[in-house]
């Protein structure tokens, strides 16, 4: 018998198969949909989400700009004046006011070629001026803001300041072969030290005629440095000089009047009433004589002075404290100066090229002060100084005068001075000078 197997819509099996078929169809549909758009289990991040998560870089806030500060360094040139240097920053009226305020502190007409200056500005406006006067001092000029209601308030202030230096205290020594200048330079030092040594021992040694080959010097000196560069000497604290076998020593100490002077080891003052010579390091071209053939007049006559040959312009120093009695010109003596000293002494300086500034009769002069400059005015065949000395009106041979010493170390200070000598003296000896030199307070 043929049996027909058909699902009956009304039977239980048919219903079961229809439910399963529906579930499968739904599953396929969902699978297709998720295949197109992806599933939530996918670890990748949609592009739109990445872009939303990116940190948007904002421009940095603008930093407020401060004032523009600048320094304008320069060197005073030949012919430069305060007006020519400052014209780019100040008008003529301001420069005039500035010069008037500076006058009692440092006159700007004394600006010297070769000296450095600096102009400090802020946004193009000058806030400070500096000018180095010399190796020790500098001038500062500061513009001031006008105060409301104060009409007399100055537009500038001017002040002097010490140039800051670093110092090293060292021992220097040398041996003379021809001149003190050469000996100092051969020791690796600046020739200016020779002038200081000559000033210290100028009453003991005539550096024009007494110097000999083999003479030796030693000194404890303060060297000064600026930004690591040597800038000269500050002070000589102690020195020794062996001349023709004779030892001379000098130790720097403040006397009871507050003046620094050099004394020998026994407390005697190295300073005497008169210098041995009014010049340094020059040669004698003619001596004192009762009868000498005059080089111009060609006749024999007395020569009551000592002639020191030196280049025109060499400074001439007063041999001792005194008062100027004559500043004049004579057809024979040329430009000359006379100075009256104590105890009836008078010194004369002839054939000068010019006088030092401010020289006039009645002026008080200190020993060693520059009074004029070597020349060849009057009866002269070449530049030289004719130096003369009189006592109570009678001429003396300047080279034979025995000059008394100035005041020695006082009894009150002798104890301190002996301690100073004990500390400084070994420093002058190369065999005992080791390492850093410590300077006694009394010598400063």
Could you characterize the architecture of this molecule?
By secondary structure, the protein is an alpha+beta fold. The chain folds into 3 domains: 69-162, Nuclear Transport Factor 2, Chain: A; 166-271 and 409-443, Roll (Nuclear Transport Factor 2, Chain: A), CATH 3.10.450.350; 283-400, Glucose Permease (Domain IIA) (Distorted Sandwich). Helices cover 17% and strands 34% of the residues. The protein is built from 7 helices and 22 strands. The chain has helices spanning 12-37, 47-53, 82-86, 92-102, 180-186, 192-200, 414-424; strands at residues 69-75, 116-122, 125-132, 137-143, 156-162, 166-175, 216-226, 229-243, 246-254, 260-263, 283-286, 289-293, 300-303, 306-309, 315-317, 322-330, 334-340, 345-355, 364-365, 370-374, 384-391, 394-396. Strands 11, 14, 15, 16, 17, 18, 19, 20, 21 and 22 form a 10-stranded antiparallel sheet that branches. Strands 1-2-3-4-5 form a 5-stranded antiparallel sheet, with helices on one face. α5 crosses α6. The radius of gyration is 46 Å and the shape is globular. Mean pLDDT is 81; it is low at 1-10 and 32-50.
């Amino acid at each position: 018998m043929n049996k027909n197997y058909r699902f009956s819509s009304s039977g239980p099996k048919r219903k079961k198969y229809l439910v399963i078929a529906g579930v499968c169809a739904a599953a396929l549909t969902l699978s297709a949909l998720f295949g197109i758009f992806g599933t939530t289990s996918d670890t990748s991040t949609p592009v739109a989400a990445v872009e939303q998560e990116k940190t948007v870089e904002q421009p940095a806030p603008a930093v407020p700009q401060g004032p523009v500060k600048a320094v304008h360094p320069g060197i005073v040139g030949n012919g430069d004046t305060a007006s020519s240097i400052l014209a780019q920053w100040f008008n003529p009226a301001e420069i005039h006011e500035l010069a008037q305020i500076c006058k009692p502190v440092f006159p700007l007409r004394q600006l010297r070629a070769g000296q450095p200056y600096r102009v400090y500005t802020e946004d193009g406006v000058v806030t400070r001026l500096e000018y180095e006067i010399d190796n020790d001092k500098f001038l500062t000029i500061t513009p001031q803001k006008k105060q409301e209601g104060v009409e007399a308030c100055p537009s500038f202030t001017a002040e002097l300041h010490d140039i800051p230096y670093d110092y090293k205290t060292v021992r220097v020594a040398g041996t003379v072969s021809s001149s003190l200048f050469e000996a100092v330079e051969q020791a690796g030092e600046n020739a200016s030290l020779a002038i200081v040594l000559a000033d210290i021992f100028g009453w003991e040694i005539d550096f024009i005629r007494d110097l000999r080959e083999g003479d030796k010097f030693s000194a404890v000196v303060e060297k000064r440095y600026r930004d690591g560069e040597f800038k000269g000497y500050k002070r000589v604290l102690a020195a020794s000089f062996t001349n023709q076998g004779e030892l001379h020593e000098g130790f720097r100490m403040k006397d009871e009047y507050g003046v620094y002077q050099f004394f020998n080891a026994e407390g005697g003052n190295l300073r005497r009433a008169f210098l041995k010579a009014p010049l340094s390091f020059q040669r004698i071209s003619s001596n004192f004589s009762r009868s000498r053939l005059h080089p111009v007049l060609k006749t024999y006559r007395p020569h009551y002075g000592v002639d020191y040959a030196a280049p025109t312009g060499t400074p001439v120093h007063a041999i001792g404290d005194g008062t100027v009695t004559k500043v004049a010109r004579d057809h024979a003596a040329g430009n000359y100066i006379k100075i009256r000293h104590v105890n009836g002494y008078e010194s004369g300086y002839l054939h000068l090229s010019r006088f030092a500034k401010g020289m006039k009769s009645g002026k008080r002069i200190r020993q060693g002060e520059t009074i004029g400059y070597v020349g060849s005015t009057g009866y002269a065949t070449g530049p030289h100084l004719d130096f003369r000395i009189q006592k109570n009106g009678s001429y003396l041979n300047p080279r034979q005068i025995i000059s008394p010493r100035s005041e020695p170390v006082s009894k009150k200070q002798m104890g301190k001075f002996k301690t100073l000598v004990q500390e400084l003296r070994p420093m002058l000896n190369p065999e005992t000078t080791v390492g850093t030199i410590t300077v006694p307070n009394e010598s400063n």
